[in-house]
């Protein structure tokens, strides 16, 4: 079974600064997807960024980028130019590439990010 | 385009009661998954339904059941409620090709269940 670990329960960042959230995972599969989801107080789970394990290039979405280290099974999220609206719980998640495992997201426990004005 | 919708938003029940939660997927999505998110934790997978059949089940007791209707909406049922069932219940929909989810799961706003 796959596991996802987020070792930082809480993080804080000054507005306009950069912050990195950590995630490690364990799997015996060679192909899979990794995700970062954001959950603000409104509870809606929103996809931030997605990384396919077979792609060596790190995914980027505007101010959000990842550092994907497949051999180390590490998948960190970097938020640049932090904004007040970035304050939320951030969850790292794993999904198998195909078959029955593709139906299930495995989440970490989350990191609560606070943005200081 | 309407996103994933869930009803009700909040629900309060007492121990031993039964509850039904509802979910409507994004138009065109035939796969629905259910997750339980206890306060302070990440979501945990409960069920996945595709074409009205259960395709995956997490480590939850038989008190939890679900079904999917011809219009691809879904219901999650929980019998004999326990205090520990208090949680946010999330529904997610996705596209499936063959038997493989082909894109990310899109989540609804959730139903907050409180068991007293």
Any overview of this molecule?
The complex is a heterodimer of chains A (117) and B (116). Chain A is mainly beta. Chain A is built from no helices and twelve strands. In chain A, the strands form three sheets. In chain A, strands 2, 5, 6, 10, 11 and 12 form a six-stranded mixed β-sheet that branches. Chain A has a four-stranded antiparallel β-sheet with strand order 3-9-8-7, with no helix packed on it. A two-stranded antiparallel sheet of chain A has the order 1-4. In chain A, a hairpin with a 6-residue loop joins strand 5 and strand 6 (46-52). Chain A is globular and about 45 Å long. Chain B is 0% helix and 53% strand. Chain B has strands at 5-7, 10-13, 19-24, 31-37, 44-50, 53-57, 64-68, 74-78, 87-94, 96-97, 100-101, 106-107, 111-115. In chain B, strand 7 and strand 8 form a beta hairpin. In chain B, 36% of the residues are buried. Classes of the chains: A mainly beta (117), B mainly beta (116). Chains A and B meet through strand 5, strand 6, strand 10 and strand 11 of A and strand 4, strand 5, strand 9, strand 11 and strand 12 of B.
Question: What is the strand and helix layout of this fold?
Answer:
The complex is a heterodimer of chains A (117) and B (116).
Chain A: E1 3-5, E2 10-14, E3 19-21, E4 24-26, E5 32-39, E6 46-52, E7 60-61, E8 64-69, E9 74-79, E10 88-96, E11 106-107, E12 111-116
Parallel strand pairs in A: 2-12
Antiparallel strand pairs in A: 1-4, 3-9, 5-6, 5-10, 7-8, 8-9, 10-11, 10-12
Chain B: E1 5-7, E2 10-13, E3 19-24, E4 31-37, E5 44-50, E6 53-57, E7 64-68, E8 74-78, E9 87-94, E10 96-97, E11 100-101, E12 106-107, E13 111-115
Parallel strand pairs in B: 2-13
Antiparallel strand pairs in B: 1-3, 3-8, 4-5, 4-9, 5-6, 7-8, 9-12, 9-13, 10-11
């Amino acid at each position: 079974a796959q596991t996802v670990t987020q070792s930082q329960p809480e993080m804080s960042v000054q507005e306009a600064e950069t912050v990195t959230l950590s995630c490690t995972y364990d799997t015996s599969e060679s192909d899979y997807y990794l995700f970062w989801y954001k959950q603000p107080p409104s509870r809606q789970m929103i996809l931030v960024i997605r990384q396919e394990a077979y792609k060596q290039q790190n995914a980027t979405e505007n101010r959000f980028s990842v550092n994907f280290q497949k051999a180390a099974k590490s998948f960190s999220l970097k938020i640049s130019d932090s904004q007040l609206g970035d304050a939320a719980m951030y969850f790292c998640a794993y999904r198998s590439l195909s078959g029955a495992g593709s139906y299930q997201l495995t989440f970490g426990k989350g990191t609560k990010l606070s943005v200081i004005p | 385009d309407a996103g994933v919708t869930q009803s009700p938003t909040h629900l309060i029940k007492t121990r031993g009661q039964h509850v039904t939660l509802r979910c409507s997927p994004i138009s065109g999505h035939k796969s629905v998954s259910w997750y339980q998110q206890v306060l302070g934790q990440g979501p945990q997978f409960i069920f996945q339904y595709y074409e009205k059949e259960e395709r995956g089940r997490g480590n939850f007791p038989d008190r939890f059941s679900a079904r999917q209707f011809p219009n691809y909406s879904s219901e999650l049922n929980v019998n004999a409620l326990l205090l520990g069932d208090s949680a946010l219940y999330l529904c997610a929909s996705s596209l499936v090709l063959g038997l493989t989810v082909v894109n990310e799961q899109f989540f609804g706003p959730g139903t907050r269940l409180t068991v007293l």
